[in-house]
Amino acid sequence: MPQQRGEETRGRILDAALKKFAMAGYDATSVDDICAEAGVSKGAFYHHFPTKQAIFLALMQGWLGMIDMGMEAIRKDTVPESLISMTNLLPGVFAAAENRLPMFLEFWLQASRDETVWKAIIAPYRHYQDFFSKLIQDGMVEGSIKPVDAQVAAQVVVSLAVGLVLQGVLDPHGADWEKTARESMQILMNGLANKTA
Amino acid sequence: MPQQRGEETRGRILDAALKKFAMAGYDATSVDDICAEAGVSKGAFYHHFPTKQAIFLALMQGWLGMIDMGMEAIRKDTVPESLISMTNLLPGVFAAAENRLPMFLEFWLQASRDETVWKAIIAPYRHYQDFFSKLIQDGMVEGSIKPVDAQVAAQVVVSLAVGLVLQGVLDPHGADWEKTARESMQILMNGLANKTA
Question: Taking the model in full, what pTM does it have?
């Protein structure tokens, strides 16, 4: 089953790259290092990934894909309830981000110097911006959210989440981040939710 | 006036380091590079800074000091008004952060591997957390802010600001960030401000 073996090799390369990037950093890790860690030939590597950067992008997309699935799965009766339960995803995001922080930081560094990487970094921001904007519009239609500029309200949700993840990753013992995230969203909802609904 | 000349040399070293870090990156910049750019001897360099890391810390502290002065200067009649006018500082923060973004990212990278750097990164977070917590407590005393957990409300303000600065720096043309910041704070204040005050 060559198809299955191909998938397995691709996964081994991704795991090896994640480990090497986290330990030694993105710049200091060569394709040779990744091949040695994964136990694959350079030919097999380049069959799956054209460049080291392509692995970086695949790892990021995998992480964002997990967050997406989690967000789609949590859909409660009303939009304010949905937004509050989404904060339950944050501990998992923190845990996954903690290992990958050095990698993401290096990625951002590259983004400030490389157009392809920049686009890959900006795309998920805009994706989450659209996701929450649509959710808030749904809330206004169902009457659970007050009339607001959905774009701006979505921006607040995204900024709050980004800020919380960043601080949670930098300072894991600085606060009970799960509780802080839930209560933060509650304060935001106090301003957004329609109490007469 | 040796005192004055010392200050002038220190400033020249800081300017040279900022320029070099932004262009070539922190890791790739040596003390020799900074001395050449500043036109100072290595002796003069080490008279002012024990290590390259000390320069990094001084540059960050200088930037945070500017933000602090700005925040202290903007104090309006009520706490909600003060918080909304603080968003006027953000364009300046964006402008200063944009040049320094690669440097901060490298600094964060170091923080994930070095205890001294980590403490220097975490200190301002906790400082702003305390600043806004106290401001929100003042608001509850004056009656302009609803009874809330001041720690959590401060966390929301800090996370929102961090998230906005990060996105504004990454994607300067993705939104009108000044307007977005003001309207975001307004949405937050809808949940925090006491309308009966």
Answer: 0.80
